[in-house]
Amino acid sequence: MNDAMNGKGTVKVEEKLYQNRYLVDAGRPHIRVKPHQTPSRGLLAMTHLCPAGCYNLSESGQVEVSADGCVECGTCRIVTQTTGELEWNYPRGGFGVLYKFG
Ligand code: SF4
């Protein structure tokens, strides 16, 4: 039993996420950002909202994604649903996030 379960302390989200593992499907990212000049406000916000830190802003002002480490929360999919800036699919079976429970 850990401290959080004993009520002796708290566990940070980052520490919980670190327990998960991720199997990369090389060359087949499950999320792609479509080519753009200027990102929508929603897509730009993903550089701060993604819990796994998958989104970055390039020096030339485009949003880029590296889906390695994605926890498949779907936030980016919802935020960009009306803009159509992402191609979002679940990873192939056996790839992607491997959650550790408990
Ligand atoms: S699904 Fe969630 S974790 Fe994955 S890239 Fe989108 S916001 Fe990040």
From TrEMBL:
PANTHER family xref list: FERREDOXIN-LIKE (PTHR43082), FERREDOXIN-LIKE PROTEIN YDIT (PTHR43082:SF3)
Q: What does this protein do?
A: Could be a 3Fe-4S cluster-containing protein.
Q: Which organism is it from?
A: Novosphingobium nitrogenifigens DSM 19370
User: Gene3D superfamilies, per this entry?
Assistant: 3.30.70.20
Q: Which SUPFAM superfamilies match?
A: 4Fe-4S ferredoxins
Family indicated by similarity = To ferredoxins from P.putida and C.tartarivorum, ferredoxin I from A.vinelandii, ferredoxin II from D.desulfuricans.
Ion transport listed as a keyword: no
The ETF-QO/FixX C-terminal domain is annotated at 47-99
Protein name stated in the entry:
Ferredoxin-like protein
Q: Which UniProt keywords apply?
A: Electron transport, Iron, Iron-sulfur, Metal-binding, Nitrogen fixation, Transport
Family annotation (Pfam families): Fer4_ETF_QO (PF05187)
